[in-house]
């Protein structure tokens, strides 16, 4: 697991006259502690934060009359908490004392309960300043995810402010929230809390940033980057202006924030000649949020996310030049309404959400797609028109803590969602040629009809965060899920512990085990409405030697037998599941250095795969069958270190040794937005994202004269790839060979220049692959290709300059 936290200090006001609050933090010897993060929470939600200065103090000048929780946290110390009621007006300075980690029991209340997650140790922390100074300059949540270990999108869940925002049709994320609107991004690999579900590979949880009482504006990348080739201007390469604004609509009561991005990005494919080497993304990404403090016991939040996007020449590469690639247009509209209410000493949290995705995919023309050992020609073979919707409601209730055999913090909740998909798929012929240019096989399509699918999902969970002793706590829970379209009922027990066996040393041990179930996207159940295939084989003279062989599209059954799954043996009764366990040890070495080592194992079964069934010798009729018989196994050993440098500098270092193997015919290869044209026989091997070794170091540091540098160093094993013969069949074991090892040294140097008291400008220069290491993008992987085995497509050393305006 890794956690990206983006914090913004902004007062969050209620009704009435505001009061200044001063917080002082010291150790047991009454020495001030700088760099302590002070958070002010209302109804369990953070509304202001600050770091203590060199004297151990932090100020909050405008806190409206309300009951607040104030926490003080710093690595190597236990978190301190206190409560403050500002209703009486002026308040006395607050003094907090931090003790060494795990030496005393913290006070907790139900509205701020953060149950100990066995995978939550040693998070990586980024401030907004650090995010903007990374060389990659992530503009959305998805752009930031490569900085942490990732998982396949369609097997992972994405929630924004507790609302599921994945595409019901494909299970993919779509265009995610602008990074300027984000408060925190948490990437879980093993979240053993029963409240999380609907995934087998991981969870990405996003909390968005709330507005404050002061008007603030940021303009990032206001000017386009121009493409210059052979000392001549070749138009705009990138234009990514981003506006972030926040402020009060009604002072002390109602606040808003808006993150708006317009994107025109042309990505150069270095394996193709200019000007046919450009693929283009264009779109708008807008996230609007309103927060209403109804009372000191109730907080209401509403958000609207609008993200239309146009993609030209998707998946462009050397073997698939522009005429063979598809274009696409997608639209993502999501609205949420959240209500937090202190009730009966507990916290009632209701989240309502509505999501609509639409997608259109089409080729550059009506010609056949022609596949040869040396590359493709013609036009992309598939056209899609579809839209999907989801209406969801997720109520939860966190009870008042109960002191009995320790401290129990119970939480219960449910999830109800109605999803639908409507669309149609069209496909045209695929011709397979040998090295001499003779057609050996032709795939044509027939039939196919409009589809309209719907599904209802239910989930109920209960969990207990049990503080047994000051040095031992456990999370115990169970979750049940039901997906109507699959006619299945699933039970998912979860458990985890956190133990500090040596409090004086600060050693923390975490362990957990749980069952997880993936939702099945609606595209799976639309498959039997797709066009069917007819395949003919030819000799060198153009005569048919075999065929036509007809392939129907069918749904099989789930081959998994489990005591935790109850379903009817009907077509499409899929319940992808994983059994996941982890153990982790975390040790502070000094106040500035913390090291963590952990092991994770994920064993999945019941995954939905595409299985070709050979034609009957008499009727020449076969089938492509979706079955719930796929398996995968993921193992990971991770060692990470986080080093603090000064008051704001930080270096994150990680090494991951992993193995990711499973069935290669995952349904998403053939039913996603850009399916591959040829369905291979089912095989088991290294999965496409398998990287046995990855070293990553990144951070941000102050330099003299107000400069700041943010380096990123990465080394990893090359990705696996398969080899093919002239007939496009596997030549040997799939994914048995690899690209060369990847190494890149990137950095960004920036400086803020104060123009006047109102605004500043930030000038920065970024470099990529500074060592000019050979990192090829492509390989001639067909044994009938004269250039077989040649790696190519090096992206060499390069530099960019940026200019931002900060209000």
Protein architecture, described:
- By secondary structure, the chain is an all-beta fold.
- The chain contains four helices and 49 strands.
- The two termini are about 35 Å apart.
Question: How are the elements arranged and paired?
Answer:
Elements (H helix, E strand, L loop, with lengths): L1 E4 L13 E8 L10 E6 L2 E7 L5 E7 L3 E7 L6 E6 L8 E4 L30 H6 L7 H4 L11 E5 L2 E2 L17 E7 L13 E7 L7 E5 L4 E5 L2 E8 L2 E9 L3 E15 L9 E18 L2 E15 L14 E17 L2 E17 L6 E4 L2 E4 L3 E17 L3 E2 L3 E21 L2 E4 L5 E8 L4 E19 L2 E12 L4 E12 L8 E10 L4 H5 L5 E7 L5 E15 L6 E3 L9 E14 L2 E21 L7 E25 L3 E15 L4 H4 L12 E3 L6 E10 L4 E10 L3 E2 L15 E2 L3 E13 L5 E9 L9 E2 L11 E2 L5 E9 L1
Parallel strand pairs: 2-8, 9-12, 22-27, 34-38
Antiparallel strand pairs: 1-11, 2-5, 3-4, 3-6, 6-7, 9-10, 11-12, 13-16, 13-49, 14-15, 15-17, 16-17, 17-18, 18-19, 19-20, 20-21, 21-24, 22-23, 24-26, 25-26, 26-29, 27-28, 28-33, 29-30, 30-31, 31-32, 31-35, 32-36, 33-34, 36-37, 37-38, 38-39, 39-40, 39-41, 41-42, 42-45, 43-44, 45-46, 46-49, 47-48
